[in-house]
Amino acid sequence: MHVHTPLFVLLGVIASGAAAVPSAPALIAQEQPDNAIEFDNSNGIGELPRHIPDTCPIDTISCQHTGVDPCCSPRNGLLVLAQQWDTRWGPSDAFTVHGLWPDTCEGSQLPGGGCDRHRAYTNVSHIIEESTDTALYDDMNKYWPSNKGDNNWFWTHEWVKHGTCVTTLHPRCYDTDSYISQQEVAEYFRSILDLREKYNLFKALNASGIVPTEQMPGRRPKNTYSLQQFKQAIRDAWGVDPNVKCRGSRLQEVWLWFKVRGRDSYYPVEPWGKDTCHRISYQRKST
Ligand SMILES: *[C@@H]1O[C@H](CO)[C@@H](O)[C@H](O)[C@H]1NC(C)=O
Ligand SMILES: *[C@@H]1O[C@H](CO)[C@@H](O)[C@H](O)[C@H]1NC(C)=O
């Protein structure tokens, strides 16, 4: 299934202040990890001292302040929430999640192997099942199914490639006494399910009268929407444009872009990617 290939083309936008100010010493330190050969942590923060973020400024904005401890503000501070519409999977009145993908502040993707090999777990489904968040596993199955039928593979891939790049979730950002091994994995997925609920695409589209149309097997899609209708509906809901992704005319994904205030308060920003739809076939699910 959709490996996160599509290019993150910069549309000429450079986040203000992203690279203007020299790095604070703490940020320089991570550029020379002493185990850099076996473990490229250049986008993780494993080499920094522990920082319990009880003194984090609450109004820091990702990509707009430098020198802030990466436990307090995500260093890879421009993120994409990708939700998918696959007529074979998930509730008939909900988009399902593909992932939340941190990019660099310049809009580039991070390394395909993720940012922390030490936390490249292979059993993410188990970690979720065993977590203290007892509703998480059911919620994941409902709102984050793999459209290949292998949820452990899918969730593991998303965690390793993207979750490990969320610097605020590094174990060094937790209090040693209360940290439960791998708790950040469950927290990563829960926070994204919460985002999906908050940025509920089905509801936003529905509020503008955009509802799934009847499936017409074997025919060219008839009842299509325009890209502009889709974008306007989402702009009406949240004040920003999405990126809308299709295969042919068939709707596949809607991407919303975010920056972060404080550690984890996501707010939508204008998109940095490309649309791949013209007419959009948004078909009823068969589930
Ligand atoms: C997942 O695998 C890790 C080792 O990679 C192990 O430490 C951990 O206990 C496993 N967790 C579960 C819930 O199976
Ligand atoms: C969709 O919109 C209709 C009418 O505007 C409303 O009655 C219904 O509750 C909405 N459904 C959802 C899931 O938001």
Automatic annotation (TrEMBL):
Belongs to the RNase T2 family. It is an enzyme of class 4 (lyase). InterPro entries: Ribonuclease_T2_eukaryotic, RNase_T2-like, RNase_T2-like_sf, RNase_T2_His_AS_1, RNase_T2_His_AS_2. Its EC number is 4.6.1.19. GO terms for molecular function: ribonuclease T2 activity; RNA binding. Keywords: Disulfide bond, Signal. This is ribonuclease T2.
